[in-house]
Amino acid sequence: MANRGRIPITWKLFIKAKLLAVEALLVPSNANDGGVNLVFFEWSNETIQIHDPDFRLRAVYGNKLEVI
What we know:
single chain
């Protein structure tokens, strides 16, 4: 699409998210039916604080994640 002068929908999503200061998105998993993936736009070596009010990530990863 980009080669033909059209902006792919995923690029539009990224641009909109960056304009809104979104750092990551929780998206449906293609590999795990009913699962989700957390996709970060930029990665650094600093710690990540995770907002998981329903404890869905903690149920999978236990205490390996710092949950706020």
